[in-house]
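ok so for the tutorial part 2 we go from a plain amino acid sequence to predicted structure tokens. step 1 is just haveing the sequence, like this:
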Amino acid sequence: MRAAEKRNVLIRVANAVPSRQRECAPPILTAMLPIRFRTFLTGLAVLTLAAAAVAGQGKKRRLDDAPVAPPTPATPPAEEPAQPAAPAAPPSPWHVWSDGGGRKIEAEYRGLDGNLVLVRARDGSSYRLDLAKLVPADGEFARLMQKTLPPPPVPIATAAAKIDALVLAGLTKAGQQPNAPASDEQLVRRLYLDIVGRIPTAAETAAFVDSKASDKRPKLIDQLLTSEGYNSQMFNWLADMLRITDDYGRGVKTYVYEEWIKDQIAENRPWDGFVHDLMTAEGRLSNSGPVGYLLRDRNMPLDNLSNTVTTFLGANVACAQCHNHPLAPWTQREFFELASFFGATDATAVKANGQAKRLAKKTDVDQKVLIKIMAPNLADVDGLHKNTMTFPKDYKYPDAKPGAAVPPKFIEWAQDETKNTTAPPVPQKPEELRKAFADWLTRKDNPRFATAIANRLWQRVFGLAVQEPVTDLDDLSKGSNPPLLAHLTEEMKRVNFDIREFQRIVFNTQAYQRQASITPDLGKGPYLFPGPLLRRMTAEQAWDSVLTLVVGPELDKFKLRRADEITRMNIPGPVNQESILAKAKEIIEGDGTTGGKKGVSGKGGGKKRMGGVNAEDYDGVPPPRFENLTLARASELPQPAKEAHFLRAFGQSDRQIADTESREGSVPQVLTMMNGEIQRCIASAQSMVLKDAAKQKTPELQVESLYFSFLGRRPTIMETQTARRVFGEGLKLPDLTWVLFNSREFIFIQ
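step 2 — the prediction. this is what the tokens look like for a chain of 750 residues:
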């Protein structure tokens, strides 16, 4: 039997065993332990105590067992001198509670439930204290805390259970049943792909599957959400949404913008603050990251407004740019009134080539050096003192004259919703218009802002949004489960637009942790989420998974850092011939060059090129190379990748239009997986997956190692027997990597 025929035998076996039929793990325990109450009479006081709903605190507690504060003088609290608090700091929730009979406990205020105050001691024990039995000062303190502090956080399990109840209600109403729970093997691979954008290693899979801990699922979710991989995966997601590209043309590089976004993700910046910065940023691209958003549509404020409203509000307004929308309640006048908030904003990128060429002729500085200095300093966002927005000259509706000035006005939603009664007043000063827009856009009571991001994140996790498409939320009654979407909106507000926390809740739902469904026929009815959809990996997930096989989890240490090269070109003051030449002298002297093509031109100068980037562009040790491939995560490569790259072949967007990444299969994808350099890389001697398999003592364990690495599961008996047979006929471990890499099971997220 020839090698190709033997490979076909293996791949037929791999594709013939659907992993949904494999043994499933019991469902995760998500309910909180119930709080038990027991009343103890002690002297004149009656205190109701509760056992802590935390690990290791199962026994009932009495006041006698509670930590007792040191004796204090019996001075009435009212006579104690007031301690002035720092103006910006809220009062501490820690307090010494007393029953009036001298018994005391130091505990943290957690909430007020009628006449019971909920407190938690330093050892984690929880109590419910009857206010009627406490000293008056304790009651005053509890009521002060109720007014001052936000309500205690809702436990993740409780928040997830509320979502599950709404999903189940939708299924029950339609006469459907939820899918069976996913097995540990299915779930660990799904979690790694969805949260950190790569498959787990064999060791990571085995550690999770073999663990007997009852809380291993929520712990893994927490671990992944705080990892470097999460930051990379979220950047990839945002890059498609925000049309991130390295080059805006005219020599303008966006590295400062890209690294600013990565920093916001790493800091877990709330979504409302992140978007507010995008709307209000001013300055040059040489020193201000968030100006990159408005400069993406430089000199095209109407296009930018259309993209902004569609992306962040899910409002289908594109048609209203030219005429009243025929299918949505948007008029052309409303579009221009909203665009008028950007009428006093100048977002431009002046072409530097011509000016640099003329200046180079007058001096001995190389033209390329001048372009590198001028381009980021001439790409800026500034506020104007006059609103320049006017109706188009071909405006044909009777409510305004063509060419007339457009007064800014916030939009009103559909007739069945509140018409923005809480919208901020429109400022009179043109310089304040953009901030007013940002304030209105990101407010919690904006009818669409929280809904739009909650719907997008649900789509990211489940493969389908509650309301599709995510760019058209004009009529929320069209969603597959309107009560679910309404609740997700409120959850997004409750967690204060913390998108990491929101995803933590969703990943902990039983709905997400069920077996995947095949893509439904939406023509026969809405998909009601009996489980997530069976999805093909995104281009970035496929690429990063390949790197996990070749490099291992160490791939997260390779970080692309190119912003410093741009920020050092920043000119602090006015940009003119004198300041440009002064900066050129500073750069040339700092580099120890003459400013020629071998210096700061970016080409030559001894820099090692790595598929569009330099080895020196990475922090510390650069990523490894294989043939023409730089083995760094998709987030740490040029944005987007070059057209011939694996990423583009597998559907990475060209970033010209938002949300256009593709998961459709193609013949070039098949050829790439079967015969491309990426396959040769996996089967090479430097491949981590082969090194790990070769360390195993028996052929059976070697096969198991490869199955764990590629598919996140152990091989079946039939697969092991088939592998042993073909190994005996001459096939080697690299041949098995070819088979597993080309199996359907590898490229799909179950």
